[in-house]
DNA sequence: TCAGCCAACTTGACTGACCAAGTTGCTCTC
DNA sequence: GAGAGCAACTTGGTCAGTCAAGTTGGCTGA
């Protein structure tokens, strides 16, 4: 006795039209069959056809022009919202799953930049958790997590064991909120003396510094994850539509 | 005799629901009125109500749960696709509208990195257009545009006049294509001797280097716009949803 | 008291129909 | 030959109705 999931009709139409676009049957720039033709071919009501075509338009597979028709663009080069983003990775990184060593984990006064990102007073108590990440036996990056002390208290963030979950989980649970979006800041700077030693770079080296500030839906920030990477060995990559 | 645009009914419903969410009448976490209630209150058919609610869901104002109802999230912190992106600005920048001076404009052999981004052989002929951008009478960034020579030939990119349009327009017209998306690479490096002189920084300074590669929908790249900024004076900022 | 069932409620999907707005090509008139 | 009008076609918006799938609360029976 097996149960078979049948997708809704509009989803089936989406899949078939994508297949035809991908196969070249409907090449970029060519007109799509009219709604009326698709209704006849697939035996569907117009609103069902229109729903499928609406999804394809929203995803960027086609463009529509009232009175003229719909035209093929092709598989969207950018899968909307699908890109890997540095901040997301940092927030969800499980220390137990990467080669890393804990440098420090405990309360410190918030430096000016971190205080500004967290919207708190400079020198407010925050918990700093700092690790050195290694890749292929080479020191690769230094990652620092900054959480307001009253939130981090009692969480594994202040402990010495490798984190089995990403920072996000601990902060969400401790603060009883859901993190919504990340504001990411990228800059370049020279390394501190400590960073020179840990990363094996010269004092004149150029480091990429990324600060991912995670906020809840209202915009209130709850955690900053900073990572510094030697510029000669790392490059951030991102893709987005032109308009 | 005046003509007044009346938005479609579903758009009016969207606007009213957004207003109520923003005003606190429907606070975050609270249930939205059911479809049936909205139909009665606004005198609309169910598909019209559903269409409006679908847009609000897609934009992140609400979340929906079949059988349970729809719940308020609030104004999305990230307006999808609305962020300013460095690559977009670079591609559409009109030299005539910024304080800049032309450093060079002419054919050069493609350096390795640029060739890789343009998917051409190293040392292939490309046109390099390089400008120094000034802000508040201070040298701020060096921007270089790299276009395959056969595309740039005959365009204002090889000329000495300030560009009145962004690079995008010239490339699209010359190549007879439409640019679709940008793949952006960010790294940190030390300045060249020339850059030290132009930007007024020390050889040990850390520069942010941004390469925006503009591609058509098929993924074929057509132009690279590089910009280098002193790290101590610049920071890139970006925001995106966590999931 | 607890578990199961059912009714009422909710959103998801689908149908058929009609009117509005935009596009294009053909025909007719000047 | 050029311009205007109209018919046929296209997508955009709206209505009314039905069935499917999921949730919740109340009632009944063990």
UniProtKB/TrEMBL annotation, chains A, B:
Keywords: DNA-binding, Transcription, Transcription regulation. Residues 7-75 form the HTH gntR-type domain. Gene3D superfamilies: Chorismate lyase-like (3.40.1410.10), Winged helix-like DNA-binding domain superfamily/Winged helix DNA-binding domain (1.10.10.10). One of its GO terms (biological process) is negative regulation of DNA-templated transcription. It holds the Pfam family GntR. GO terms for molecular function: DNA binding; DNA-binding transcription factor activity. SUPFAM superfamilies: Chorismate lyase-like (SSF64288), Winged helix' DNA-binding domain (SSF46785). The keyword Cell inner membrane does not apply. The keyword Transcription applies. This is GntR family transcriptional regulator. It comes from Thermopolyspora flexuosa. The lineage of its organism: Bacteria, Bacillati, Actinomycetota, Actinomycetes, Streptosporangiales.
């Amino acid at each position: 006795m097996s149960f078979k999931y049948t997708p809704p009709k509009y989803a089936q139409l989406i899949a078939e039209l994508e297949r035809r676009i991908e196969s070249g049957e409907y090449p970029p720039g060519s007109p799509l069959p009219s709604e009326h033709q698709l209704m006849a071919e697939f035996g569907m009501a117009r609103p069902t056809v229109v729903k499928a075509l609406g999804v394809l338009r929203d995803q960027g597979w086609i463009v529509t022009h009232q009175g003229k028709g719909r035209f093929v663009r092709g598989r969207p080069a950018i899968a909307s919202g699908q890109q890997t983003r540095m901040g997301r990775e940092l927030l969800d990184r499980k220390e137990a799953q990467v080669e890393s060593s804990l440098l420090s984990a405990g309360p410190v006064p918030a430096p000016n930049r971190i205080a500004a990102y967290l919207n708190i007073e400079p020198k407010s108590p925050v918990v700093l958790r700092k690790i050195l990440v290694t890749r292929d036996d080479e020191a690769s990056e230094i990652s620092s997590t900054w959480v307001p002390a009253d939130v981090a208290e009692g969480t594994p963030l202040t402990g010495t064991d490798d984190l089995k979950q990403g920072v996000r989980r601990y902060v969400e649970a401790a603060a009883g909120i859901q993190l919504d979006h990340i504001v990411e800041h990228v800059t370049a700077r020279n390394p501190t003396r400590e960073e020179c030693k840990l990363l094996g770079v010269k004092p004149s080296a150029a480091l990429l510094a990324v600060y991912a500030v995670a906020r809840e839906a209202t915009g209130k920030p709850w955690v900053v994850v900073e990572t510094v990477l030697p510029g000669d060995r790392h490059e951030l990559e991102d893709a987005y539509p032109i308009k």
